[in-house]
Amino acid sequence: MSKTSEVGMNVTIDGPPIKHVSHGRAVLVLATGTAFLAGTPLWVKATNMDPSTQAFLRVVIGCLLLVPFGIREMRKKERLGKKGIMLSVAAGLFLGIDFTAWNYSIFYVGAGIAAILLNLQVIIVPMLTAVFDKYKIPPVFLILVPIMTVGVLLTGGVFESAEASGGPETIYGIKTATLGTIFGLTSGICYSFYLYLSRKAGTSARKDLYVQPMMYTMAAQAIPPTIIAFFFSPRGGFDFKNGVLLNGELPLVNPETTVGDPLTAWNWFNLICLAVLGQALAWTFVQYGTVWLDPTLSAGILLLSPVTSVIIAAPLFGEIPSKLQVLGIFLILGTVAYQNGLFSMFTKSKRKHERGNPDEPLDQELIREGLAPHHDPQEVPNNPYKKHNHGPFH
C-alpha cells in the first residue's frame, strides 16, 4: 500500500497499515526499558560470571526469546531488507565487543561507574557521521570533547590512588582503575559504532519493525565473546562453573588467572534477569519507544538509566564514588544532556536539530531531508534542505 507522510512524501509500505502509538504509551514503554537498562550493570556484577561467558549467554538467551516474535513480525508486517540485515549484523559484531569490554569494566571500576563511561557515544557518533556521511559538526563540539574527556578520566578513577580501589592495585601491570577505564572507553567506542550502523539499518519504509533488527543484532553479538573467550581469555574458553569475584572483591593475588567463587543458583538467576529484562525486553522497549517520541524527551528518559545505576550500586555493592568521580559524572552527564538538547527544555528558545544530528530518530530525518528509499530531497514540499545536494541514502 502507499501512504502519504506528514510532509507530503509518498512511501510504499508492505503489510498492514502502521498503527500509531500514543504518546503516553510510548513514554511508558521507553521508561520501562530504561529501568531495565539501569539494572543491567547491577545484574552483570551480581551474576559474577566470566565477562566473555556472560556476554555470550546474555545475547544467546535474549536472541532465542526474540526469534518467535521476529518471525511473527515478518509474517504480519514485512521482512527486514537484505541491506538492513547486513547492517544489523555488522552492528551486532561491534555490540558484542562492547558487551564483553563493558563486563570487564564493571568488575574493574564498578557497575555504576561503568554505566557512566558508556555515554562516550555522544561525542563518537557525531565523529562517525562527519567522517562517513560528511555531516558538519557544530563548533561547540570542540568544547564538548575535552570536557567529556576530562569527565571520563575523573569518573574512571584514573587520578585516584591505587589503594583507594579496594582490590588489586594492578592487573596485567596496569593500574586497575586505568584498565577498567580503558575497557569502558572500548565499550563506548564500539557502542557508538553499533548506534551508527543500527541507525543505518533502519531505512525501511516502515517505522514499526521493532524486533527483527534486534534479533539479527543479537545473533551477531554472540561471535565476539566466543572469539575472545577461546583465543584471548586465560580461562581458555567459556567458564560455566567459576565466577570472577572472591567474596565480592577481585582476587588480590594473581587476579589475571585466579578464578572467583563457584557460581550459584543466585548467580544464574541474575543472568536470566539480565538476558530477559536487561537484554531482550530492554532493547526492544527502547527501540519501540524512541521511534514515537521527540528526540529530546527520549534522551532525557534514557539519561535516567546511568544515574539510577550509580545510585543503586552504592547500597548494593558499596560503590561510593569519590569527590573527583562525582565531578566526572556531572561533566559526562552534562555533556550528554547538552548534546541531546535537554537544556533547551528549560529555556524559552527551543534548540533546532542540526543537519546530521545522530540523536534524531532516523525516520524523522529521512522524511525531513527527503532521504527515504527512492526519494529525493527535491520531491519534498517546503523542504528547507532542498539546496543541499545529498547523495542517495543506502
UniProtKB/TrEMBL annotation:
<feature type="transmembrane region" description="Helical">
    <location>
        <begin position="26"/>
        <end position="43"/>
    </location>
</feature>
<feature type="compositionally biased region" description="Basic residues">
    <location>
        <begin position="385"/>
        <end position="394"/>
    </location>
</feature>
<feature type="transmembrane region" description="Helical">
    <location>
        <begin position="324"/>
        <end position="346"/>
    </location>
</feature>
<dbReference type="InterPro" id="IPR000620">
    <property type="entry name" value="EamA_dom"/>
</dbReference>
<dbReference type="GO" id="GO:0016020">
    <property type="term" value="C:membrane"/>
</dbReference>
<dbReference type="Pfam" id="PF00892">
    <property type="entry name" value="EamA"/>
</dbReference>
<keyword id="KW-0472">Membrane</keyword>
<feature type="transmembrane region" description="Helical">
    <location>
        <begin position="297"/>
        <end position="318"/>
    </location>
</feature>
<feature type="transmembrane region" description="Helical">
    <location>
        <begin position="108"/>
        <end position="128"/>
    </location>
</feature>
<feature type="region of interest" description="Disordered">
    <location>
        <begin position="349"/>
        <end position="394"/>
    </location>
</feature>
<feature type="compositionally biased region" description="Basic and acidic residues">
    <location>
        <begin position="365"/>
        <end position="378"/>
    </location>
</feature>
<comment type="similarity">
    <text>Belongs to the EamA transporter family.</text>
</comment>
<keyword id="KW-1133">Transmembrane helix</keyword>
<feature type="domain" description="EamA">
    <location>
        <begin position="26"/>
        <end position="155"/>
    </location>
</feature>
<feature type="transmembrane region" description="Helical">
    <location>
        <begin position="179"/>
        <end position="197"/>
    </location>
</feature>
<keyword id="KW-0812">Transmembrane</keyword>
<feature type="transmembrane region" description="Helical">
    <location>
        <begin position="209"/>
        <end position="232"/>
    </location>
</feature>
<feature type="transmembrane region" description="Helical">
    <location>
        <begin position="265"/>
        <end position="285"/>
    </location>
</feature>
<feature type="transmembrane region" description="Helical">
    <location>
        <begin position="55"/>
        <end position="72"/>
    </location>
</feature>
<dbReference type="InterPro" id="IPR037185">
    <property type="entry name" value="EmrE-like"/>
</dbReference>
<feature type="transmembrane region" description="Helical">
    <location>
        <begin position="84"/>
        <end position="102"/>
    </location>
</feature>
<feature type="transmembrane region" description="Helical">
    <location>
        <begin position="140"/>
        <end position="159"/>
    </location>
</feature>
<protein>
    <submittedName>
        <fullName>DMT family transporter</fullName>
    </submittedName>
</protein>
